[in-house]
Amino acid sequence: MKESSVENLFPIAVYRNNINRNFTEQELQFVNDQQNNCIKNEGNIHTEDSYVLDRKQFKNIKIFLENCCKDYLEKIICPENNIELYITQSWLNYTKENQYHHKHLHSNSIISGVLYFNCNKDSIKFYNSNINHTIKPLIKKYNFWNSETWTFPTKTGELFMFPSSLNHGVDVKKGDNIRISLSFNTFYKGVLGSDTALTKLIL
Q: Is residue 186 domain-resident?
């Protein structure tokens, strides 16, 4: 029998980067102070302020994330028109021991991201929407195609960016440190489509 092959058709991109520096005292002080201005989420808490990247304390972090948005656009989306991904909303998440971040996606956003300020043996979990959940054979060996979920370990300073429609979450946290992350959403700015294709949209 001829050796078979398996092709990866329409894979979902999960972009990873790292800020590659220690967070400054000013940045960390702001992060710690914001814990006093939070609202309850389903399994943890997040800041009432949903535009934290507009604060002066996060000026340099915003520059880093905007550069990553450009990198994502150039490497993954590869648009012909001169468009950009701009950050719409941004907020901080705080997850204590025995708390979790529920399964969710981000509406009204193109690409979402998570930057980690403090994590210890934590991970982010993504959910496979292509799996048929009504028919479930027993699996001998899990891979990218048959797994219902896939997790990536996270490190302080690490950034993940992914399509906002991709469901994700965090399991119940172990350890007594507070897991702190900054989440953000994006949208397109510029010209999408074309006149001749009758798809032109100016944003």
A: yes
The total of structural domains in the chain comes to 1
- Tell me the whole-structure pTM to 2 decimals: 0.94
CA 84 vs CA 2, 16, 72, 122, 159: distances in Å: 46, 19, 10, 31, 19
What CATH number does the domain containing 24 carry? 2.60.120.620
Separation of alpha carbons 80 and 37, rounded Å: 42
| Bridge partner list, 184 | 90, 113
Tokens of 162: 């992914």
2 in a structural domain: no
Question: Could you read off the pLDDT of 73-108 as tens digits, one per residue?
Answer: 999 999 998 899 999 999 999 999 999 999 999 999
Tell me the C-alpha to C-alpha distance, in Å, between residue 7 and each of 11, 42, 76, 90, 189: 10, 38, 19, 36, 34
DSSP letter assigned to residue 75: I
Instruction: Answer whether residue 10 is part of any domain.
Output: no
